[in-house]
Design goal:
By secondary structure, this protein is α/β, with parallel strands linked by helices. The chain contains eight helices and ten strands. 35% of the residues lie in helices and 16% in strands. The longest helix has 18 residues. The protein binds 2-phosphoglycolic acid (PGA). 2-phosphoglycolic acid (PGA) binds next to loops.
């Protein structure tokens, strides 16, 4: 697990955006794994700007989002489909038909989950998966106690997640309690994972993810088993880690090695 500690939110977004830009430079038809939440927004703005400057193109790529609220159609303003349209898809040159988000309004969620897994496989698997992290350590909507080898399925949201996300819903709107989410096993199958976190509220979850035991009590700790996983965080999110000096040293060495190898 590579731990990159940067000074602020902007630097975290820039680092993450560059990983996506490099991936698309290497493979124009890359399969992108995307995430919602407030953390990825700054990264998406950087991708939009780079796309407008002609530095990256999404036209041959496709994307799979981590999760969706069950019961919300894609045109509902709180749905994750709607969020992705507003925050990214409507502003870049990606083919709309190649952007996949689990179907929140499906009549058959069980079949929809299997279809999503099949579709990811048919596209050749996810090349680079973006992740946020919940204050309770969730990735996607894989809440604490999620199976570490789980696949896309219906999940009940944890009370902590419902209260973290309540700010997006008005008082008269009913907040969904169920979701469809890629499983932890689905996420672990991605060729690279990029978890972003900023702010002190994420510090305990990050410490558990990076330095805690591998445990379903902190679903993000499963990334310790990922073959190519990077955790990109600001100083505040890093504030409960014990080995920060070592991670910074490793990152300096990585940068030197990359410069030497021209990567
Ligand atoms: P946030 O959500 O980026 O809005 O903090 C992250 C998550 O719940 O995965």
């Amino acid at each position: 697990m590579q731990v990159v500690i940067l000074k602020d939110t902007d630097a975290v977004a820039e680092y993450g955006a560059q990983l996506f830009i490099k991936q698309l430079a290497k493979k124009t038809d890359a399969v992108l794994g995307l995430a919602t939440g407030s953390t990825p927004v700054a990264l998406y703005q950087k991708l939009i700007a780079a796309n407008k400057r002609g530095e990256v193109s999404f036209k041959d790529s496709c994307s799979f989002n981590l999760d969706e609220y069950l019961g919300l159609a894609g045109d509902h303003p709180q749905s994750y489909r709607y969020f992705m349209q507003q925050q990214l898809f409507d502003h870049i040159d990606i083919d709309a038909a190649q952007t996949f988000v689990p179907a929140g309004d499906t009549d058959n969620p069980i079949a929809a989950c299997q279809d999503y897994e099949d579709m990811i496989r048919e596209k050749g698997g996810i090349d680079i998966q973006l992740l946020g992290i919940g204050t309770n350590g969730h990735i996607g909507f894989n809440e604490p106690s999620s199976g570490l080898m789980s696949r896309t399925r219906v999940k009940t949201l944890a009370p902590a997640t419902i209260s973290d996300n309540a700010r997006f819903f008005s008082a008269d709107e009913e907040q969904p309690h169920l979701s469809i989410t890629m499983g932890i096993g689905t996420i672990l199958d991605s060729r690279q994972s990029v978890l972003l976190a900023t702010g002190a509220a994420k510090a305990s979850a990050i410490a558990a993810t990076v330095e805690g035991p591998l445990t379903a009590a902190c679903p993000a700790s499963a990334l310790q088993m990922h073959p190519n996983s990077v955790v990109v965080i600001d100083e505040e999110a890093a504030s409960k880690l014990e080995n920060t000096e070592f991670y910074k040293h490793v990152e300096r060495e990585n940068q030197k090695l990359k410069a030497k190898l021209g990567l």
